[in-house]
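Hello, quick one for you while I still have it in my head. My current little project is about how a certain protein chain folds up. You're getting the sequence in one-letter code plus the fold written as tokens. Would you mind checking whether the tokens look sensible for this chain? Here's the protein in full, and shout if anything looks odd to you:
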Amino acid sequence: MPRPAALAAAALPPLLLAGVGLTHPLVLTPETAPWWRDLHVIGLVAFPLLALGPWVVVRGRGWLLEGTVVVLGLVYACFYTALDVLAGIGGGHETVVLGPGPWVSALFGIADRLVVPGVYAYLAAAVVGGITAVIVTPGPRRAVAVVGTVLVVGGAYSFLTSHIYYPVGVLTTVVLAVGWTALAAVVPPVARSVRSTPRRRQPVPT
């Protein structure tokens, strides 16, 4: 993956979520319900893309390491999407159609339980990605990798409870954007072995 593409994959998903979070209603009411529902439709795409950050850092550094981060990212994406669909789209839509009622708290209750494996999987991916970056980054750039690791692990820890609510959730996603971008910028590219193609034998003149 070219460096500009890696930087974009690390920075853009959390920045998009930060922008959406600035408009996230703090309370679900009949007045805020339409946007509450619709912004979580955006989240169906944006939230899973957060898993690109750790993958960008570890890609190509061994099947076990990369596979671990991919599996953690998949767990995060699946279980966080459950929160997005149930509490976000479902809760918002039911409030639009039926108004406030016990079904909203019931949706929030199951969503809050289902999201737990997802946010912890993302925290684990941040730890794995950050430690990998510190180990593989040589020289003075390692200090940047250390700072980036502190940011992504701290951001992932905050993400356990902050969602994207303003102000903590928005700040959390901005911190993740800065941290993953810093790590993607300093990790050295993985050397690829190039297989030499055998030269075609020239016909022997007779």
Observations:
- Residues 133 and 186 are 8 Å apart (CA to CA).
- The mean pLDDT is 92.
- Residues 3-186 form one domain.
- The chain has one domain: 3-186.
